[in-house]
Amino acid sequence: MDKTDNSSQYIVLRSLTNKEIEEIKQNNTTRSVLFYDKVLFETYSKYFNAELIEINEELKEIINREVMEALLKVPDLILNSTNLKDLVSKDFSIWHYQRFRAYFDVRNSLYLCRSIRLVESDSIVIFAGDSTTAQYFESSKHVKIIPPQKPSKKKNYSIVLKFLILTIIYWFSSFVKSNKMKKKKFLFLTSSSQYSNNGSNAQNRYFGKIISSPREDSGILIFLPFPKIKGKNTIKYTFSEFYKSAKMDTLASPFTLKNYLRKSTRTAIKKKSTELKDVYRSIELLPLGIEKYLLDRLRVNHHSSLIYYFQFLSFKHFFSSSRCEAISSIDENSPSIKSILDAAKSCGIKTIGIQHGSIHHLHPAYVYSKSDIQMNKLVDHMFVWGEQSANFLTEIGSFSSQQIHIIGQPRTDFISTDQVSSNSKLIDKYKNSSKPLIVFFSQPQRDENLRKRAAIDTFSLVLNRQTEHVLVKVHPNEETSYYEKIAQELGITEGYSIYKNEIDLYDLLILADAVITCFSTVGAEAAFFKKPLITLDYLQQDIQNYVNNKIAIRATNSDELSACIQTLLYESSITFNHDTFIREYAFKLDGKVATRFWQHLTHIVD
């Protein structure tokens, strides 16, 4: 690192090398080093004067809107530029595979960069987390970017080996199933992790009773997602983790391995890679702006785009010889799922999305422009929970009314039946407890600061009240260790519990005296059980309209959260609008969602 004068403001966005620490100590004598991440702040504050900066909440709200507006303008850029045309073809779209990830990557980068621009200094030195940070400061001559000297994440080749071993095992075990699956008329597409994490056929969290239908012409198509060579994998790729799904009458996809052996597949991937690299050079020539930042994420995520293209080619070969007439999936816009649905669509098969979470105006998986629709890259039909979702998708999401079908929420079919207890001992423990039970349903958030703040504020109830028991229900895509560490840092040893898959979500909603969440779908499900709900809404955006629909009250800090608990549990002065909400967001709680699903599906195909 070059010598920098004492007036420079140092900003740290990543881990530092020992050499960088020493040089900051030598050069920085008059200013505090600025941090935007609490973990980094705690790590390096012992070396020099340090200050932890909180990003302004109003600024975040403005950036959220700006990035969403830019996201909707990108398809126009693609359609009107011959140099970008290879991002979208007749059958598949690299842009639509990456748009969700691009939205959050750019949004979070802008949180940091706009905040840094508020720093008053004639010279700023930023230790950036990746090479893309520089593009946000191209016009700022007083800013110097120092990218990481080494890759921030080690490559994990062992996970690749596990993936290959599992793929080979499934390959040999699925010869019979493959032919059997090709004869199915209706297919349900899901990843092995979604299937194993969210319940068996009897009580799957997303499909409900739909996949336990006795119809012989339907089947479950399970695929094994590619592992991440860098970074953390939420999937362990152990045989035991997928044993349940593999032993069912399903197909754990062998297509990726045997299709890669085809020379034509490898040639097509190399050609696509060359085409995309030409596009990236064209993106570099675009004027600075959020649209350019979004498109540049395609270059950063180039290798994953090739994986999605590989999946498209592999499954297209499978669907071309199948009898399938319709295929449905939850999370239909995640790239791994979407690339497979696109393969089915290219073979004339109807594609159907099943709503699996709340829909709102800042959700990039559900908000599209007219140009997106013109590209014909969405599913053919969407099965949604209620009137609110249907109206949103037609009025804001750009879907046509013919594409939308209201069936209710699949999971609610279990409400009208006797709930099969997931853990009778745990249920009896809390059912017989003298303390009211407060359940916090966590969720993975792209904004790490808000995620941690929600956890700290929830645990603060244990410190400040001691009159209730706080239970943290960890999201399937999170680790319990994250919350255990926070509780430990706060010095909490009792008065709380942390569970992940040990107890069912609906069993907890039955037991809960009050529910806390940020903007999780669980908030809507709490209303189905007519439970008092608190949303930790730090940006006061009411993204899910829980407060506006009068099924929740808002808290923006630990003191407000404690006051909400006091009001809901002991004063009973708030009336919630549960019945109206159920009608608009879940249609009916009559146990017949699966029946309506099959009625609509049959009508679509016939």
Structure description:
- With 606 residues, the protein is α/β, with parallel strands linked by helices.
- The protein folds into 3 domains: 9-52, no CATH class; 157-412 and 595-605, Rossmann fold (3-Layer(aba) Sandwich); 424-586, Rossmann fold (3-Layer(aba) Sandwich), CATH 3.40.50.
- Helix 10 packs antiparallel against helix 11 (290-300), helix 10 (263-284) runs antiparallel to helix 12 and helix 17 (448-464) crosses helix 21.
- The longest helix has 24 residues, at 94-117.
- The termini are far apart.
Low-confidence stretches: 1-5, 197-203, 245-249
| End-to-end gap | 68 Å
Gyration radius, in Å? 25 Å
Biggest sheet: strand arrangement: 8-7-6-9-10-11-12
Helix content: 40-55%
How many β-strand runs?
Answer: 18
* Total of domains: 3
CATH architecture of the largest domain: 3-Layer(aba) Sandwich
